[in-house]
Amino acid sequence: MIQFLLNRELRSERALDPNTTVLQYLREYRGKTGTKEGCASGDCGACTVVVGELVDDRLRYRTLNSCLTFVSALHGKQLISVEDLKDQGRLHSVQQAMVDCHGSQCGFCTPGFVMSLFALQKNAGAVNEYDPHQAHEALAGNLCRCTGYRPILEAAEQACCAKQPDQFDAREAETIAQLKAIAPREMAELSDGEKRCLSPLTVAELAEVYAANPDARLLAGGTDLALEVTQFHRELPVMIHVGQITEMKQVQIADRHIEIGAAAPLTDCYAALAAEYPDFGELLQRFASLQIRNQGTLGGNIGNASPIGDSPPLLIALGAEVVLRKGVNSRTLPLEDYFIDYKVTARQPGEFIEKVRVPRATPDRLFRAYKVSKRLDDDISAVCAAFDLQITDGVVADARVAFGGMAAIPKRAAACEATLNGAPWNQQTVEAACDALAADFTPLTDFRASREYRLLVAQNLLRKCFLEQHAPKTETRVTAYV
């Protein structure tokens, strides 16, 4: 059984297909049709809802794509949909802002925008505080084909600057008490009699239940796994949800590395990675939408083994490691050795990624990362490049160069590295290393880019890295996109 709050109503679900998404649950089971299905793939934001959960005994509100969230992920949390905002016949201030600023035309996407604005307002600082960057980030995962975004951004400003206590603030203590009462205390199971989803609470429980069900699909954020249900119409007979395991959601900074639990959402990874590697932080802000980053995990991005995943090239260049667990046994593997072939990894049956270790930055190394995609926000890479260089007295003492989108797996550019290592860090060396990239990769042509384009982009990104390192200190760096 799982338990959660549907706004203020306690819901206990025992016999429910665990393949049911939150979007389906709201529309088909609870009759709340304000939440819309636009794309069923997490791209448009029309299905945006807000989930509240306890963090250090305080309420935290985050947006999610309900089309990519399975109901089991709601266990112990509060689900808020657009119907819940109106109170005693009066529109919520974010809804009123959309009306006042003419932020809606056909209205299909409006509920999603309203929920993103609601979370933005809740997470804003003091009253009358408006941060345009935060507003853009909050709304980047919501698409509108009618209005244009100026009036919606005006609504965001009004909602933040005219922030007033609402019914959620008035009932905060009550909500906290309710969430404490339903906090998970033992492994939960959701099943319709044929399909089931298990939610262990500890790494030890996960290891035990996964060993007993090695064919089960591991579910963290579900932003990729859910597509098998929503896009390919497959059924997932057994899932194991790792989102309740506190140990696997922690981000800890040690003397020599950052240790990131495999179930930590990307949003929670941002501060630690951005502080050490600003380029990593910049790329994470372009890692899909805020709704996706609130769900998706670093462990999932690695475990998915996509050749165009955004984080693996950066992590490989930095020399990151994964800690793999099977039963009571653990092993540590360099991330570059984890990927073997397209969607084939070194992970054994019953083995799972427990954590990721990223070396901390040192002053003697230069790290640069670039993502090239067709649009700046919420898009998949055509090419992703990462360069981690140690340059001593004008000579490349050590080079680690990795790319995504250039092969069946994210991988290092061995010939390019060999050309750079021991050579002067100058234009001539860089051009020779660019030529060597042709020996490292034979990229594919697909709908995102041709093989010729990908190779030229990869070479140009190495040139960009060199030019930026020699640019005046006042020059502003811009992550590449097309």
Write the layout of secondary structure elements.
Blueprint: E1 2-6, E2 9-13, H1 22-29, E3 48-55, E4 58-65, E5 78-80, H2 93-100, H3 110-123, H4 132-139, H5 150-161, H6 167-170, H7 172-181, E6 188-191, E7 196-199, H8 203-212, E8 217-219, H9 226-230, E9 238-241, E10 251-253, E11 257-261, H10 266-276, H11 278-284, H12 290-295, H13 298-303, H14 311-317, E12 321-326, E13 329-334, H15 335-338, E14 339-341, E15 344-345, E16 352-359, E17 365-372, E18 383-392, E19 395-404, E20 411-412, H16 414-420, H17 427-440, H18 451-469
InterPro entries: 2Fe-2S-bd, 2Fe-2S-bd_dom_sf, 2Fe-2S_ferredoxin-like_sf, 2Fe-2S_ferredoxin-type, 2Fe2S_fd_BS, Ald_Oxase/xanthine_DH-like, Beta-grasp_dom_sf, CO_DH_flav_C
Enzyme class: oxidoreductase
Keywords: FAD, Flavoprotein, Iron, Metal-binding, Oxidoreductase
